[in-house]
Amino acid sequence: MQRVAAVVPRVAQAVIAIVTIGFFFGGFVGIMTSDQPPSRRVVPLVLLAALLVLHLRNCVRRLDGGRPAGWPWTLAAQAVLTFVPMIWYSSTWYGNVGFLCGAVLLLVRPGRLAWAGFAAVLAADLPLSLAERPTVAEALYFLIGQAAFVGVAVYGMARLADLVAALEETLPALPAARVTQERLAFTRRLQENIGVALAGTIERGEHALTLIGDRPDEARALLDDGVRGARTALATTRRVAHEYLARLDDPAEPARARTVAGDLTTRRVAVLGAATLGLMIVPYPLRFLARGDHAARSSALFVLLLAAYIVLYVYGCLRAYGRPLGAVRRYGVLGGLVVLTFAPMPFYGPTTWAVLPFLPGAAAVLLGRRSRWPVVAVLVCQDVPFGIWGTAHWGTVYFMVWTAERAALVYGIARMAGFTATLQDAREEMAAAAVVRERLRFSRDLHDLLGYSLSTVVVKNEVAARLLADRPDEARAQLAEAIGMSRQALDDLTGVTSGFRDMSVAAEAGAARTTLAAVGIEVTHAVDVPDLPADLDTVLATVLREGVTNILRHSRATRCSIEAAVIDGVARLRLTNDGVDGPPVPAPERAAPGGIGLPSLGERVAARGGVLTAERTGGGFVLSVEAPVRAELTAEVAAR
């Protein structure tokens, strides 16, 4: 997945800066078009520039969730510059309250205190708005449609950007949690089945040791029970290994909590985006509806049409970059918005049904890349022809900036929502892939490691039972080794569930020689592999263990050879036996990928840069591995 960390800061900071400058531009226009003489406009312009700098310092920041140094002082200075100049410049200064609302939400902690501060700023602004505006409806518009909207918009963009950054930083967290869940399930199942059977085998074997020689019949009964328990554990091991191999495509257990970063959940993210768009759109036409003299039925229809417009707008804009809408649906949503923009105008007039300025934002989100920005530019400049022939040039420019800043805000929210959904999907995909890898590893390790130990336990218990009557001392030795292998199997059980298990090919070769000799197989042993890397040593030991397990289970061998050495920087392992019937197969058969046993070992060897071959000869079988010893050789082989 392409990283978005470099994109998110630019999108978020650019949108916040554009919205901020756009709204401050409204204050600039108010000062420039006021009745004050030019000489008296200098002071408010300087104060407005200082307020802009303070706000950008407080709210445009890195995506680390941190606050700028000295933020209490800069926030206090912003509060002073927001309210005090209203004493002299009330008609042009009231629009700056929204930036203080946004700064409070971003800087004050914890969140409840921040929202309380947000409400306090709005409460302080209400009497000032009522004193300045001619009607309550107008005052509420500037309180909600300007101050509250700007505060939530600034806060929403910054928090969505924080969320995307936090999601990217914590991408490995969900896969790790899912793998932990799988391992807990592994452990519980193995302990309930295989662990209990092994513990019983060890207990019966230790009891039988005390009875050999004195009470052979009781010892034999215990040994028979131990063999049955070991066989049960071995059968369960194979069954569980194959079951987990068959479950590779099963979905992992979904996360219970949908918290994606910090205190934000997917629901809160959606609510934050929808609230920002709602505060942007709804107060503006309602303001003009309140100015007119409309019948109750006409007003109710107006509200219903506006509700339909905002629902379609929010749906289209928040879904466009999320889990993307298809082209037909995107253009269908945009077409519906166009109809709802123009169809009511003949009944209410373009001034009252004032939703056209929000269409550029929807176009920026829903149109394709080639047509998006030209269409947005045309829509943003919709008022220019009227301004050219009139005298309100400042008003025309202000309306263009007003429309453009809202289009930028909608585009930024949609992109942030898209980044969030993309990273959410990436986390889920990574978690699913991690669970599949863990299931595959578990299946392989269960078969390759634990299967060998249990096969050896079964063999040694059977040998001890055969020797019980005639050679009790040898029976004791075999049973003691069986008990030791049972304990080793319990250790292997822990290694399989935890995923960490280092093995030594030299130690495995020694154990294999003893095990094979116990069942009457003559073993030639030539192993000289000093100082192998741990991962390579484990791979070779695992291959040897699987080969010996196959000899015990599937062959009638009488002779076996184990050879391991390092020659010219390449580790070589060769295991041969004479117990396979059938015609020779001269060409080596490479283990196919997938599955368990030799196929899985072939993949493990290949991951280490080596090759595993399995070759039948006349009445025999050869299993061999060649793998580079040095890690850099492994990397070169993998690259090829």
Description:
There is one protein chain. With 640 residues, this protein is α+β, with helices and mostly antiparallel strands. Helix content is 71%, strand content 7%. The strands form 2 sheets. The protein has a 6-stranded mixed sheet. Helix 8 (173-211) packs parallel to helix 18 (393-467), helix 9 packs antiparallel against helix 18 (393-467) and helix 10 (266-281) runs antiparallel to helix 18. The longest helix is centred in the C-terminal third of the chain and has 75 residues, at 393-467. The chain starts with 7 loop residues before the first helix and ends with a helix.
Strand content: 5-15%
How many strand elements?
Answer: 8
Approximate helicity band: over 70%
How would you sum up the major sheet?
A: 6 strands, mixed
Span from first to last CA? 23 Å
Q: Averaged pLDDT, please?
A: 76
Rg value: 38 Å
Strand order of the largest sheet: 3-4-5-8-7-6
**Structural class of the helices, strands and pairings?**
alpha+beta
Number of helices: 23
Which segments are poorly predicted (pLDDT under 50) over 5 or more consecutive residues? 386-391, 582-595, 632-640
Task: Sum up the overall morphology in one term.
Answer: elongated
